[in-house]
């Protein structure tokens, strides 16, 4: 793939392509050329050159997103290349920057920003080996601890202890890297590299460990908090979290499944819910909220009405919403600002058609992403869906897998979808007529792959042809049977799989013990 490059950038590529020569010559390079050489080295995966550039970095800041993003010299955005060779060289170079006593430049570096790196499914780097968010968290924590040990043991220049660099990072903590992260955060004050957590994701962690590590981060800097999957956080723990920690800059909050369950509500829970709503209302920056797989029947208004800032992203998939919840969403001030909405798992077009259409009309001027998976959308609903989507001219992504639509209805929908000017990604279901007669929806995991694959391929080709006939090669249409790609889950799936097997084993052992006692 050819990309526009300036003569300066082509010269920079030529310079760094000979690693030995480039490393020897860095002392004679002008300060303002370092960013150019860094991007050229990253593109060519010249790990040793990257290491030495960072080790001798002459500027006040080092911002990965800006350095790798599109520039006048090279239009290609490399921020989604999480190349293991490049990132490891970069982080070890940062450690060696602190230890470097022969640098020809005065040490000016104050801020390193690693938050601009994006984890994506398809990697274009030659080595094909990635370093995801979890691995970056582990390596930086390890390097901080090693650096402290070295500084305590070695005879270092007294100036080394005066170095203070804030390293902004999106932390991802699980059971497997917990101890390393905790050690790095505990010693933050005495380490020249100071981990500053801007986004925090925790998975496969006990509540005790989650609360301990989140209190070690500086919550005043935190913009995004994701508590997912195997962190058993319930409503009383959430109230405890909000009462004990203040999140003034929090913009995005993701809660794990079953945080809320109205079916078990008592009078105490009602008050707790009010408190949680009020605490979220104090988060004046909060614009993204994900509460999937909780049971929120009838309490959406109580949770969302205290918010003073309109939400731009809302995920209430599989939350058992009722008509009152849908009516509140459609009429609330949030509706006019929603750029991303996930209502999966709700029979919206059958049970609340007019309310759903009203909600879509209110957010149509800004809506970019809509997810309606497993919503029992049938052929009879196709025209209504088209009516609702027609004003959504800014829609970039539409996901509706798991719905019982026929091949014919899908072709009808695609003929409409190709007219949406901003559309880039469509995730469509396997047509109902590709499955055996009598299949019931939602389809269970055991049956989801039991369809006529040849017929599906023919239909998928026809749907893509509908797009091509309208010159919409820019639209990607696919059927991810087990959900969209999630970089974080992909990176830690071995650990999570082992956790689930262990949980199942423990449950089985408890059952066997109880059964034996009964016998």
Strand order of the largest sheet: 1-2-3-4-5-6-7-8-9-10-11-12-13
Q: Assembly state here?
A: single chain
Gyration radius over CA: 26 Å
Residue runs with pLDDT of under 50 for 5 or more positions: none
Judged by helices, strands and strand pairing, the structural class is alpha/beta
User: Could you tell me the mean pLDDT?
Assistant: 93
Report the principal-axis shape: globular
Percentage of β-strand residues: 5-15%
Family: Belongs to the PRAME family. LRRC14 subfamily.
GO cellular component, one term: cytoplasm
Keywords: Leucine-rich repeat, Repeat
Protein name: Leucine-rich repeat-containing protein 14B
Characterization of this structure:
- This protein is of the alpha/beta class and 519 residues long.
- The protein has a domain at 7-131.
- The protein is 42% helix and 10% strand.
- The protein contains 19 helices and 13 strands.
- The chain has helices at residues 7-17, 19-25, 34-43, 47-55, 64-68, 84-99, 133-153, 178-186, 207-216, 235-244, 267-281, 300-304, 323-331, 348-351, 353-363, 382-389, 407-417, 453-469, 487-518, and strands at residues 61-63, 111-113, 165-173, 193-202, 224-227, 252-254, 288-290, 313-315, 340-342, 369-371, 397-399, 425-427, 476-478.
- It has a 13-stranded parallel beta sheet.
- α17 (407-417) links the parallel β11 (397-399) and β12 (425-427).
- α4 runs parallel beside α6 and α15 (353-363) runs parallel beside α16.
- The longest helix has 32 residues, at 487-518.
- The chain is globular, with a radius of gyration of 26 Å.
- The N and C termini lie far apart (70 Å).
- InterPro entries: LRR_dom_sf, LRRC14/PRAME.
- This is Leucine-rich repeat-containing protein 14B.
- Keywords: Leucine-rich repeat, Repeat.
- It comes from Irena cyanogastra.
- Belongs to the PRAME family. LRRC14 subfamily.
